[in-house]
Design brief:
Length: 410
C-alpha cells in the first residue's frame, strides 16, 4: 500500500515542538486574563463572505490563499485564514454589543494556501486578542503592552522589535490614497501585474506587495505621516506617549501597512531578525470601520494575532515537564500492588511512570529514561511485611518505607 502522508504545508505537532507551542499559548492566555480578556472559540469554518467581503478583495488572503469549498448542502464555506472576521461575526450574531467593552482572546488553527517554507505553513496556529468598544488610545496602548508583556514572559523581549505606524482615520487615508495614486501612476510600467490591477481597486495594497519590483517603487512612495490630519496625528502621539510612559521601546516604521483592508490608525508588528524572511511574529492594529461594515454598528476595535509556531521556533530551551516517580514491581506477584500504588500516587498529585513490563534492570533503565527522580520498588517479600523501597535516583540512596506512609515520605 502506498505510504500515507500529511498534506503539503501541514505538520504533526508533538514532543518538544508541541510542548513549546503549548507554553506559548499558556503564557499568552495568562497575560490576556490579567488584562481582563476572556477566551472565545469560534468555528474553524465560516460562510465564505465573512472573509471575502471583509478582509479586502485585493488582499493576498482573499485573492489566492483561502481554502474555500462547497459543502454537501451547496453552501460556500471557507476555513478561516485569520481570527478577527469570525470573532466580529460572533460579536454581532451573539449580540455582544450590549455590554461594551468586549475583550476576547482565542487560540486555534488558521489556514492559508501559501508557498510552504520555514515559518510559513498552510495550517498554522494563531493566538490573538480583540478589544471591541474602546475608541481612545488607551486601548491601543494596553493592547500593545499586553503583546510586549507576553513576549517578555516568554523571555523573548530582547529578540523582537516593536514596530508601529499610523494609517490615520478615513479622511487621512483618503488624502493619502490620492497622493499615492499620483505617485504610482508615474511608475505604472514598473509595477507587477497584481499591483497594476490594485492601483485601480485598492492602491494601498501595493504598499504591502511582496514582489521585488513593487518593493523598489514603494521605497520612495509618499509617507502616511505626511497625510495624517490633526486628529489622527494627535491620536498617534497619544499612543506613543503611553508606550513611553510604560517604558515600552518601539520603532516608528513609516512603511508599515499590514496585509488587510480593515486597519485604521495604529498598526504594529513585533519582528525578529532570527527567522529569515518570516520575521513577523505578531501583528495587529485598530479596525474601527470593520464592525459597522459587517453590520454591527459603530463599534471601534483593536487587536493582534501572533504565529504560535514562529514564536515557538524562537524558544531555545526545551520546556521541562515535572519529573515523574517510577513504580517498579519486582516479579509478577507485585504487579497488582504496583497498579494500586501508581493509582494512589497519581491521585495524590504526583506524575507517575509505570514501566508496564520487563525485569528489574529493564524497568530501572526505563525509569531513568523517563527522567524519574524517585523509584518505588515493590518486592513481594517486602510487600507481605507492608513495605516498599523508595530509591532516590539522583543520589542512589534508598530506604524501606511503610506502605501506609508512602505518600508522606515522598
Ligand atoms: P506575513 O507577512 O509573514 O505573511 P501576515 O501579515 O500575513 O504575515 P498576519 O495575517 O498578520 O500575518 O498573521 C499574524 C501572524 O500569524 C504573523 O505575524 C505570523 O507570525 C503568523 N502567520 C501568518 N501566516 C502564517 C503562515 N502561513 N504560517 C505560519 N505563521 C503565519
Ligand atoms: Mg501573509
Amino acid at each position: 500500500m502506498e505510504k500515507l502522508q500529511n498534506v503539503r504545508g501541514t505538520y504533526d505537532l508533538y514532543g518538544a515542538a508541541k510542548r513549546k507551542a503549548k507554553k506559548v499559548i499558556e503564557t499568552a492566555s495568562k497575560v490576556a486574563e490579567k488584562y481582563g480578556f476572556e477566551e472565545i472559540e469560534t468555528p474553524v469554518f465560516e460562510f465564505t463572505e465573512v472573509f471575502s467581503r471583509n478582509l479586502g478583495d485585493t488582499t493576498d488572503i482573499v485573492t489566492k490563499e483561502m481554502y474555500c469549498f462547497e459543502d454537501r448542502g451547496g453552501e460556500s464555506l471557507t476555513l478561516r485564514p485569520e481570527g478577527t472576521a469570525g470573532i466580529v461575526r460572533s460579536f454581532i450574531s451573539e449580540g455582544m454589543q450590549q455590554n461594551l467593552p468586549v475583550k476576547l482572546y482565542y487560540a486555534g488553527p488558521m489556514f492559508r494556501y501559501e508557498r510552504p517554507q520555514k515559518g510559513r505553513q498552510r495550517q498554522f496556529t494563531q493566538f490573538g486578542v480583540e478589544m471591541l468598544g474602546v475608541a481612545t488610545p488607551q486601548a491601543d496602548i494596553e493592547v500593545i503592552a499586553m503583546a510586549y508583556e507576553f513576549l517578555e514572559n516568554l523571555g523573548l523581549a530582547g529578540a523582537v522589535t516593536v514596530e508601529i505606524n499610523s494609517l490615520g482615520d478615513a479622511e487621512s487615508r483618503k488624502a493619502y490614497r490620492e497622493k499615492l495614486v499620483d505617485y504610482l501612476k508615474q511608475h505604472y510600467d514598473e509595477l507587477s501585474e497584481d499591483s497594476k490591477n490594485r492601483l485601480e481597486k485598492n492602491p494601498l495594497r501595493v504598499l504591502d506587495s511582496k514582489e521585488d519590483c513593487d518593493k523598489k517603487i514603494v521605497e520612495n512612495a509618499p509617507l502616511y505621516a505626511d497625510s495624517l490630519n490633526e486628529n489622527s496625528a494627535a491620536f498617534f502621539q497619544e499612543v506613543l506617549k503611553g508606550l513611553d510612559l510604560l517604558g515600552i521601546k518601539y520603532r516608528v516604521n513609516n512603511r508599515l501597512v499590514r496585509g488587510l483592508d480593515y486597519y485604521a490608525h495604529t498598526v504594529f508588528e513585533l519582528t525578529t531578525d532570527k527567522l529569515g524572511a518570516q520575521g513577523t511574529v505578531l501583528g495587529g492594529g485598530r479596525y474601527d470601520g470593520l464592525i459597522a461594515q459587517m453590520g454591527g454598528g459603530d463599534v471601534p476595535g483593536i487587536g493582534w494575532a501572533c504565529g504560535v509556531e514562529r514564536l515557538s521556533m524562537l524558544l531555545e530551551k526545551d520546556v521541562d515537564l515535572p519529573r515523574p516517580i517510577a513504580v517498579v514491581p519486582v516479579g509478577d506477584d507485585a504487579a497488582d500492588a504496583a497498579l494500586k500504588i501508581a493509582y494512589d500516587l497519581r491521585k495524590a498529585g504526583f506524575r507517575v511512570e509505570h514501566g508496564y513490563s520487563g525485569n528489574l534492570k529493564k524497568r530501572m533503565i526505563k525509569a531513568n529514561k523517563a527522567g524519574a527522580y524517585k523509584a518505588v520498588i515493590i518486592g513481594s517479600d517486602e510487600l507481605s511485611a507492608g513495605k516498599v523501597t523508595v530509591k532516590d535516583l539522583d543520589s542512589g540512596s534508598q530506604k524501606s518505607v511503610n506502605l501506609d506512609n508512602l505518600i508522606k515520605e515522598i
